[in-house]
Write a structure and sequence with these properties.
Elements lengths: L8 H15 L6 H8 L3 H5 L5 H16 L1 H9 L4 H13 L6 H11 L3 H24 L4 H20 L6 H16 L10 H8 L11
Helix pairs in contact: 1-4, 1-7, 5-6, 6-8, 7-8, 8-9, 10-11
Length: about 210
Amino acid sequence: MRRRGELSRQDWIEAARDILINGGKASLSLRGLSEALGVTTGAFYSLFTNLDELHDAILEEWIKQNSEPLTRAIEAAGSDGMEQYLAYVRELVLGTHFDPRFDNAIRDWAHSSQKTAAVLRDVEARRVEELRRVFLAMGFTGKAALIRARVTYFHQVGYNAMQIKETLEERLTNIPYYAEILTERTGLLDCVEAEDVRDVLLGKLSLQNMKG
């Protein structure tokens, strides 16, 4: 057993996140978590008041890991709507933060927890609103921007929930077709190779041909 002082709150949160992802909320017991970390349950209470506090911390970790990087990517892309959309896609496909399994685990948890369900609703509303602003910046107006935002988000949720099995190369070569449907921009269809799509997402190729 490790001494309790060797673990930080973040260690417990990350271990709890992994158990939630791999086994669901039902597997997230204090005893199982302590055993996974190789410490006694007493070590937990030196850092947390109770399990509810840990549960709140897991939700905060989910927002930090799976939502805030998307927000930062969109904001960093400037005022151009297509640049914002590609920044969003880049974070989902090539980023190191977003974990679709974490989203799936939170949604499963929300079925049995009113608090988790409330947090999920709030976060998803914010995600859709961010995408609505992306489509407004692209030139869509009113309900057209909102519905495109919803379809973009619902597409991603369904993609994750279905746990689509494809290589990164396959996913990259599919992106131009999704972009055409969701944004009405066809420039990405000129990217025949996966590496070309990657270069566009990373800003190594010009986006000028995607303005039309």
